[in-house]
Amino acid sequence: MAPEAFVELFQDALYLVLLLVSAIVVPGLLVGLIVAIFQAATSINEQTLSFLPRLIATFIALMFFGHWMTRMLMEYFYRLIDHIPNILY
């Protein structure tokens, strides 16, 4: 198998990781930004105030995107299994 095929598989893996991580991290970042703006506007200096909303947003994102993430990982895994004969020859 040509080295380009390995690079393509690795590139697909990195893209998949970036996609899956952003589906979980972005909602937490948006909630953190909203809480930070609220804290700045009200002059509340409580550090633990932003932790719970971000945690809840992360869990909700996992609930909504969990099935999609599992499907994406399974499709990538099946693609890797399909490429095994090409790798051996």
From TrEMBL:
Topological type in the membrane: Multi-pass membrane protein
Keywords: Bacterial flagellum, Cell membrane, Cell projection, Cilium, Flagellum, Membrane, Transmembrane, Transmembrane helix
UniProt xrefs under InterPro entries: Bac_export_3, FliQ
Gene Ontology cellular-component terms listed: bacterial-type flagellum basal body; plasma membrane
GO biological process annotation, one example: protein secretion
Summary of the function given for this chain in its UniProt record: Role in flagellar biosynthesis.
Protein name as annotated: Flagellar biosynthetic protein FliQ
Gene designation: fliQ
